[in-house]
Design brief:
Rossmann fold
Length: about 240
């Protein structure tokens, strides 16, 4: 009988914040976690911390804005595991120069789109062949309610006042990738969803968020561990489905 394989998960931007906590919770679920990080020292330290906690974790150098780094990571994962069961596109940035469309720094907006949208798209393209080899591949895109077009246009939404054209558009674009990828993968075993973690205390927002990283990791971890093919191509937060 075929031996049940240990699932392997790659989490981008996993050296700190929500990504590190997603890796920890997946590790506790018995999954071998690959800590994607652009900085070797920070990535190794995070993987070491999880190993010290008794989890199976290793570091993979991965800068989501660097095509060579992405290709090397895919190659290393293929060589070590032959497949990938879970991809969490978590790495993301904000930018001080971001702001309303009339005044945001164009360079800041370009960097936001490069890291928060082009990055996950490129990582997904590189990892897709490995995900398709897994018996039940799962992709989770770390989005934000700030990327919801519906909420951006709704004066009663708590997010209505957050006029960050670069950050918000980067997450809207990530949502579009989720919808299109879900359609393209509908006849495969790979399931893809977007997750909003809520407003979380991390370096990204100067620790102004009110949720802890363990609380924030709950939704993306649930989507990463989905047994069934539902939901597929949805945008999910702790309260359920988020309007696009
Ligand atoms: P964080 O603590 O600042 O962590 C961001 C992570 O992304 C870090 O590990 C960072 O690495 C990494 N990263 C940035 N650029 C990268 C690149 N080019 N290549 C690889 N890694 C890169 O932020 P967080 O709050 O945990 O955010 C995680 C995700 O959740 C982001 O996508 C964010 O947009 C999303 N999110 C956060 C909130 C919130 O309230 N915090 C709400 C909604 C969505 P370095 O340490 O090297 O910088």
């Amino acid at each position: 009988m075929e031996q049940e394989h240990r699932r392997v998960a790659l989490i981008t931007g996993a050296n700190k914040g929500i990504g590190l906590e997603i890796a920890r919770q997946l590790g506790r679920a018995g999954i071998a976690v690959l800590i994607g990080a652009r900085d070797t020292a920070r990535g190794q330290a995070a993987a070491g911390m999880l190993c010290h906690e008794g989890l199976e974790a290793s570091f993979v150098q991965l800068d989501v804005t660097d095509a060579d780094s992405i290709a090397r990571a895919a190659h290393a994962i293929e060589a070590a595991h032959g497949r990938l069961d879970i991809l969490v596109n978590n790495a993301g940035i904000n930018e001080a120069g971001d702001g309303p469309p009339a005044s945001a720094s164009i360079d800041a907006v370009r960097r936001l789109l490069e890291t928060n949208f082009i990055g996950p798209l490129a990582v997904t393209q590189a990892m897709l062949p490995l995900l398709l080899r897994a018996p039940a591949g799962r992709i989770v895109n770390m989005s934000s309610s700030l990327g919801s077009l519906a909420m951006n246009g709704d004066p009663s939404s708590p997010y209505y006042a957050a006029r960050l054209i670069g950050y918000n558009a980067s997450k809207s674009a990530l949502n579009m990738m989720t919808v299109q990828l879900a359609q393209a993968l509908r006849d495969t075993q790979v399931v893809v969803n977007a997750a909003c973690p809520g407003y979380v205390s991390t370096d990204l927002n100067g620790h102004t968020g009110y949720l802890s990283t363990p609380e924030a990791a709950a939704v993306p971890v649930r989507l990463a561990l989905l047994r069934d093919r539902q939901p597929h191509g949805k945008f999910i937060d702790a309260g359920g489905e988020v309007p696009w």
